[in-house]
From TrEMBL:
The keyword Secreted appears for this protein: no
Upper taxonomic lineage: Bacteria, Bacillati, Bacillota, Bacilli, Bacillales
Gene name, Swiss-Prot/TrEMBL: sdhB
Cofactor(s) for this UniProt protein: [2Fe-2S] cluster; [4Fe-4S] cluster; [3Fe-4S] cluster
EC number: 1.3.5.1
Family membership noted in the UniProt record: Belongs to the succinate dehydrogenase/fumarate reductase iron-sulfur protein family.
Organism annotation: Paenibacillus whitsoniae
Example of a GO MF term: metal ion binding
Record protein name field: succinate dehydrogenase
Coiled-coil annotated spans: none
Length: 254
């Protein structure tokens, strides 16, 4: 009897959809069969398998992005019940019904829940968020990082460029060029690396330019929303100190 009741149970989704980058968004309701332990992605898969809305009308399958399905790749970021998060870790049993799904508004919408996160990768290029070893050959083991530094650097390396922190930040929008908390944290990570440190001054110069660290309003929404628990505000505070020291050094010609 319990199995029969479970099979009859459904989950309602209200999805904000958009056919193209230039078209107007609209909402469409779907009802899918409930399964124990299902997440938002499995619900969207049910819609894709049988693309009919709650009225029974045939429609186009909802478009979204996903890859790892274990909160590592960051591809399935979307706004679920008003909160930006990963759809793969959003369990239906823990969500208020109906489940409202929308694309993150900070980024251009390509179609339905698919967004263009190019803004984040442009920011990473601006701050040289990598260890510069191109063109080198095997020189053996590199310099060792102190264990005390490695522990907190590892936490920063968990960033999956999901965009949730930018969506939560009130200072990131289409009216400014603020690079956002994720790129700021990556500056701290690569400046701490024994090899990446050679470009420390360039990264700090980038943070002191338009769209850099001055764009942070210290709302702290980023650290509260980060799905990996990265200490973003700690990094921003450290970079505030680093850029101030760097500025004084430039003034003094040191």
């Amino acid at each position: 009897m319990a199995e029969t009741q479970s099979a009859q149970k459904t989950v309602k989704f209200i999805v904000t959809r958009q056919e193209s980058p230039d078209s107007k968004p609209y909402t469409e309701e779907f009802e899918v069969p409930y399964r124990p332990n299902m997440n938002v992605i499995s619900g969207l898969m049910e819609v894709q398998r049988n693309p009919k809305n709650a009225k029974g009308d045939k429609t186009t399958p909802v478009c979204w992005e996903s890859n790892c399905l274990e909160e590592v790749c960051g591809a399935c970021s979307m706004v679920i019940n008003g909160k930006p998060r990963q759809a793969c870790s959003a369990l239906i049993d823990k969500l208020e019904q109906p489940v409202r799904i929308a694309p993150m508004s900070t980024f251009p919408v390509m179609r339905d829940l698919v967004i263009d996160r190019g803004r984040m990768f442009t920011a990473l290029k601006k701050v040289k968020a990598w260890v510069p070893i191109d063109g080198t050959y095997d020189l053996g083991p590199g310099p060792r990082m102190a264990e005390s530094k490695r522990q907190w650097a590892y936490e920063l390396s968990k960033c999956m460029t999901c965009g949730v922190c930018l969506e939560a930040c009130p200072n990131v929008n289409d009216k400014n060029s603020f690079i956002g908390p994720s790129a700021l944290s990556q500056v701290r990570l690569f400046n701490a690396h024994p090899t990446g440190e050679m470009h420390k001054d360039e990264r700090l110069d980038a943070l002191m330019s338009d769209g850099g660290i001055e764009g942070c309003g210290n709302s702290q929404n980023c650290v509260r929303s980060c799905p990996k628990g990265i200490p973003l505000t700690t990094s921003i505070a450290a970079l505030n100190a680093d850029t101030t020291k760097h500025l004084f050094k430039k003034w003094l010609g040191v």
